[in-house]
Design a protein that fits this description.
The complex is a heterodimer of chains A (264) and B (179). Chain A is built from three helices and twelve strands. Chain A is an alpha+beta fold and 264 residues long. The two termini of chain A are 39 Å apart. Chain B has one domain (5-20, 32-159). The chains are: A alpha+beta (264), B mainly alpha (179).
């Protein structure tokens, strides 16, 4: 009987017509449990951090120094590119193109990650009450992180670009004129880039950006990843290409939710 | 379930769920974390028999499903399956006097549960569940639930009002056997 109920629930959930019922239930559950889990984390995490910190004090000090150096380098780059960004913004406004820097954002803190062993997702401490809605892109750590797939009143779940259900339209090459689709292959794995013609000239380390297509699911020109490997497949018209995310998805703490809704 | 069993079982479920969503998520080995919800379903089957195993497995899985992006009902289906299987094992009269019985069943049941989740996930459109991280997930969940097996069974014994009858897994009957 319970097996039958479970199978029925799965079937209903897979059907888009009834999906909003389970979404509503999930939203309520998140709103109810969020203060509880947050409270437990607030109590228990400092204890764990204390022991972890006492054991790894030396390496933490070294890591802190490296981070300070990185911040210095980034500040320098930021100062150097401020003028360039202003030029790009002006050009984009002339062309009426959306530009990430011109879109409103909501900064959120990551509270949980990979709730299941088979998902690549994170939970944020901001939800609908802060303007975070399903479908909005999430950026952080230098590139695209993922997309909001569930939003409750006070929390949101973001599906990372490495999740196997994630698919992002990308562009690359001279003038970003080559289009492809990047699909996740599970947590910790490079993304698979599909539909690249066999004769395409590729460079390892090349940046790939969101292309703004697919009903504008993502704003264009957000860095997604860097080309990791490529090879021509014998007898196939397409190449086998992988890329690694620009954003370090294992070290996320704060991210920006871009208040951009797909034009569906 | 009757009398004070239901509120006690719900309390145990709530505590395990909160632990699963907080402390347990911070424990990562090879990218995988333990799954106490699966362990609870097995423990409920061992302590309470088939019926209680199925109910606790279903409800705990359903509660976890509320927080996952995987298809709603998938964890409930797996929880029901392992809860029933653990209960059947007890009902079949397997020798429970060996101290390895509980950890062994908890570990084996967990491995089966994780693989079942991965296979069903793949069938429902998440193909990488069968390849990426499956080994680590099976290993971590198996070991942790094996180690915590006695603790979870004890919690279920308390929930089912069997705390005074000694070790349920060593006794001639578990609550579910009486029906």
């Amino acid at each position: 009987m319970l097996v039958l109920v479970s199978v029925t629930l799965i079937t209903f959930d897979e059907r888009s017509g009834t999906h909003h019922i389970t979404s509503g239930l999930k939203s309520v559950a998140h709103d109810v449990f969020s203060p509880l889990t947050s409270g437990v984390n607030d109590i228990l995490r400092p204890i764990g951090d204390f022991f972890a910190g006492s054991v790894n004090y030396g390496s933490l000090q070294s890591e802190n120094q490296q981070l300070q150096a990185t911040i210095g380098r980034l500040r320098l780059q930021l100062n150097q590119t401020a003028a360039l960004r202003e030029q790009v913004r002006e050009l984009d406004s002339l062309e009426h193109l959306p530009y990430l820097g011109s879109l409103p954002i909501v900064t959120a803190q990551m509270t949980q990650f990979d709730l299941s062993n088979f998902d690549a997702d994170i939970t944020l401490d901001k939800g609908r009450s802060s303007g975070v809605l399903v479908g909005m892109p999430v950026v952080g750590a230098g590139g695209l992180v993922g997309q909001v797939v569930q939003a409750s009143h006070g929390t949101a779940i973001v599906q990372l670009i490495t999740d196997s259900r994630s698919s992002v339209g990308v562009s690359f090459g001279p003038n970003n004129q080559t289009y492809a689709t990047a699909t996740g292959q599970g947590p910790g794995n490079p993304l698979s880039v599909q539909y690249i013609p066999a004769q395409t000239h590729l460079h390892k380390g090349e940046f790939m950006y969101t292309n703004g297509l697919a009903d504008g699911e993502f704003p264009p020109n957000i860095p997604v990843g860097r080309l990791h490997s490529f090879k021509a497949t014998v007898g196939s018209g397409a190449m086998t290409v992988t890329m690694t995310p620009v954003a370090d998805l294992d070290e996320l703490a704060y991210v920006d939710v871009v208040q951009w809704e797909p034009k569906l | 379930m009757r009398g004070k069993e239901a509120p006690r079982a719900l309390l145990v479920l709530l505590v395990v769920l909160v632990l699963q969503l907080t402390v347990v998520l911070d424990i990562r080995i090879g990218g995988a974390h333990p799954d106490l919800i699966l362990g609870l379903a097995i423990a409920a089957g061992l302590a309470g028999g088939t019926e209680r195993g199925a109910i606790v497995g279903f409800l705990s899985g359903l509660a976890l499903d509320l927080f996952l992006t995987t298809p709603f009902g998938l964890s409930a289906l797996v929880g029901t399956g392992v809860g029933v299987a653990a209960g059947q094992l007890v009902a079949a009269g397997v020798d429970r006097t060996n101290w390895l019985f509980v950890p062994g069943v908890a570990a084996l049941g967990s491995a089966i549960g994780v693989i079942m989740f991965a296979v069903l996930g793949a069938v429902l459109g998440q193909p990488d569940t069968l390849t990426v991280g499956l080994g680590a997930a099976v290993g971590v969940v198996t070991v942790v639930n094996g180690v915590l097996g006695y603790l979870l069974v004890r919690a279920c014994n308390w929930a089912f009002g069997q705390e005074r009858s000694g070790s349920a897994w060593q006794g001639p009957l578990v609550a579910g056997d009486r029906h």
